[in-house]
Amino acid sequence: MKLKVCGMRYEDNIQLIAAINPDYMGFIFFEGSSRHVSARTPALPSSLKKVGVFVNASYETIIEKIKTHNLQAVQLHGEESPEFCKSLQTHKIEVIKVFSIKKEFNFEVLSSYETVCDFYLFDTKGPLAGGNGYCFDWSVLKDYPSTKPYFLSGGIGLENLTQLQEFKTSPAATYCYAVDVNSKFEIAPAKKNKELLEKFKQLL
């Protein structure tokens, strides 16, 4: 599985985490987040894809951030329509559409997004748009009806490694492309612990 480290902000910490070679690094452009990015983000190795995370942002705002920060992917955490997702695909970037889950999920909502995004991301439904710090019930994904690759997110930490290993061998994980981590590896909001992430990456 690929690894995405989300909620980055501080340049020295960004470079520190980039050195362990995650596959994706997420930057949150949502002012309601404690990990909100307002400054320019540094250049990263070409092997590491920069992801801009947005919540119901305007098309113009997202395009501006793509250009300013040289984003290779956008992650949409709001109520973005299939038409909105399709419009972003024309910019030759990966579009990741987020859906939140608690104990159950109506997978029928995915059908209209099948051709307009590159990945789904399943996160925990909670009071925040992301970074709630706890997992949803992954067994829900046994009913996943699509062949589109998806990111598994929501409060994943070192304590979930055994659970992750079990999940990886289950039919539900057939199309699990990447694991997305954030709050469980933080020293402070938007500042990540390199040693913990390194250990997690080695054992993933």
Description:
This protein has 204 residues and is α/β, with parallel strands linked by helices. The protein has one domain: TIM Barrel (Alpha-Beta Barrel). It is built from 5 helices and 10 strands. It has helices spanning 11-18, 59-69, 82-89, 161-168, 194-203; strands at residues 2-5, 24-28, 49-54, 73-76, 94-101, 119-124, 150-152, 176-181, 186-188, 191-192. The protein has an 8-stranded parallel barrel with strand order 1-2-3-4-5-6-7-8. Strands 9-10 form a two-stranded antiparallel ribbon. Helix 3 (82-89) links the parallel strand 4 (73-76) and strand 5. The longest helix has 11 residues, at 59-69. The radius of gyration is 16 Å and the shape is globular. The model has no long low-confidence stretch (mean pLDDT 94).
Beta-strand residue fraction: 15-25%
| Alpha plus pi helix count | 5
The helix-and-strand class reads: alpha/beta
For the report, how would you describe the main beta sheet?
Answer: 8 strands, parallel, barrel
Mean pLDDT: 94
Low-confidence region ranges:
none
Q: What is the CATH class designation?
A: Alpha Beta
How many strands in all? 10
Per the principal axes of the C-alpha atoms, what is the gross shape?
Answer: globular
In CATH, the architecture is Alpha-Beta Barrel
What is shown here, in short?
With 204 residues, the chain is α/β, with parallel strands linked by helices.
Describe the structure using short key phrases.
two-stranded antiparallel sheet, alpha/beta, 204 residues, 23% strand, 10 strands, TIM Barrel, 22% helix, single chain
